Amino acid sequence: MAWFSRLIYRSGPPPEDRHRMRAVANSLILHLHPPRVAAGALRFPRTWGLGGISALLTMVLVVSGVLLMFRYDASVERAYSSVQALETVVPFGSLLRAIHHWAGNLLVITAVLHLVRVFAAGGFRAERRMNWLIGLGLLLLVLVFNFTGYLLPWDQLAFWAITVGTGLLTYMPLLGQPISDFLLGGPEVAQPALRNFYALHVALLPVILIFGLSYHFWRVRKDGGVTLPAESTPAPRLTTIPHLVHIELGVALITLTGLFIFAMLVPAPLEDLANPAHPPNPAKAAWYFLGVQELLLHMHPLAALLLTLIGGLGLALLPLWDRDTADEGIYFRSPTGRLAGAIGALWGLLFTPLLVLVDEYWLDLPTLLVLLPTLVSNGLLPLLLTLAGLAAIYAGLRSGLRARHSEALVGLLSFVGVALLVLTAVGIWLRGENMALIWPW
Ligand code: HEM
User: Fold this and answer.
1) A GO molecular-function term, please (predicted)?
2) DSSP 37
3) C or N: which end of the chain has fewer Cβ atoms within 10 Å?
């Protein structure tokens, strides 16, 4: 039976029975982690635990999601009442729903912060570029997961957010309409849409996510672990057990405690039963798409979508765009890179609200350029102006700060990130009836 023991235990069978559980646990850990890790990688600010927290939240979502499936009913007639029953009749049903809801929303935030961390540390170049792409795919998957889950309660919020969200999709040239038709299974949000979203949410997407995550983790090991600054390699190496495992357990306990307390205090929202005849005013997409919805208020839908696609493509091509590995592992590259990042972020914070106000109250390009078709005056022109603005920021940082290419990119991406954040915040808090600007207090 020696071969069987070797299959279970990484370092041979334990000598005594009472050590068996610990040996099984250790063996499991060593199937996921290398036996030793670089000491520098264990410093918390190296990763902020963000990849691990995202993985933990995924596990919470799978477990809570499977439990919810026991009572949820994916039919238009019964979906809402089954969720109501979870909220009022099923013991701990409301807490379970809140845990699932908030873990899903938190995962969007932690996955994006993890992306920012990897970018800041320059962990997307050379051998890690494949994992960067896989990571982007995972982020997209997390968004689609959230989007498909949004419809399931079949309340007003769900129905209209998905109606607006799939409406946004149709602006995408060529692919938009077929994707929307495929998702909805018909021209509007109805029973086929609920069935499709449920199948995607509980069957297809989890399988893709589990394969994607497994590959992502495997590649982190294969690419030599997390990115470290050159001066810390060759680094002293510490054993994974107990050093890394203790940190992971600590972060997991804090995350789970925070999530549970939050879920106990703030229940998941549930509005009135979906009513296709009564759209709420304003009808908004899910919060993570409100940046794009805000763009749509300022330019032609095609231009807004093209800008979003260019942003996504830019992120995917980042490893080709910035290949300078000299400053790998140093947050924001150098003191100049940090300054460029701060300037970019500050400009994003100042200019984005300013441009929103100017476009809302003073500038109306289609009226001003009445001779041009709106696709040009309200589409091509704002698109080109935005791209020219971004190019000017990059050039300004290069010449003004004498920043290297990768330092100026830090500034440029800080600008874009903060601008997207501001647009999302405007969409969430400052848009009221008929999507007009309002003060939230
Ligand atoms: C569900 C989403 C995700 C999970 C669970 C996840 C998990 C992880 C974990 C556990 C690590 C190693 C430790 C750490 O860095 O925290 C890691 C590393 C990495 N991740 Fe992710 N990740 C996710 C999404 C992403 C995204 C959106 C990107 C970027 C587009 C990305 C790119 C990378 C890269 C390039 C590395 C290796 C480089 C380095 O750590 O310095 N990941 N990921």
Assistant:
1) electron transfer activity
2) E
3) C
